[in-house]
Specification:
single chain, mainly beta, six-stranded mixed beta sheet, four-stranded antiparallel beta sheet, 2 helices, 10 strands, about 10% helix, elongated
């Protein structure tokens, strides 16, 4: 059996399939944060994921000490595209020093809809001199 032939008039009346949209570029911005150095570095980080200036909600952001040093954890962006890593403690001395000197990094791995992006944030030491 041969394939069904479509007349040129029938082909014109059929809607063309929508082209698949390529993944869109994203921007991830890490904020400068203050950190405590007593008993290991403890700091809270905050980053914002956007696409063309608009927030990208409900996406996983990975957090690292320094420039992709020790992995701290993962958090999800909220409706405003903001992800936060609560003030956890990095207890290892090497990680604490890396965090103090090198700050922290955030990374978005991307998906079918959005391209990956990453950024680096500073940690400003907050020393407790006592009162």
């Amino acid at each position: 059996m041969s394939p069904k032939r479509v007349s040129p008039d029938d082909a014109k009346s059929q809607p063309a399939p929508a082209p698949a949209q390529p993944p869109q570029p994203t921007s991830l911005k890490a904020e400068t944060t203050k950190g405590q150095l007593l008993g290991g570095l403890s700091a809270a980080g905050r980053a914002r994921l956007t696409c063309k200036g608009r927030p990208v909600p409900w996406q996983d952001i990975e957090w690292y000490t320094g420039k992709h040093g020790e992995r701290i954890g993962t958090s999800q962006t909220d409706a405003r595209g903001i992800a936060e890593m609560e003030g956890g403690s990095i207890s290892g001395i090497a990680s604490s020093v890396m965090g103090e000197i090198g700050g922290y990094s955030v990374k978005y791995l991307g998906n079918d809809e959005y391209l990956p992006s990453e950024d680096h944030g500073r940690i400003v030491p907050l020393f407790d001199i006592g009162s």
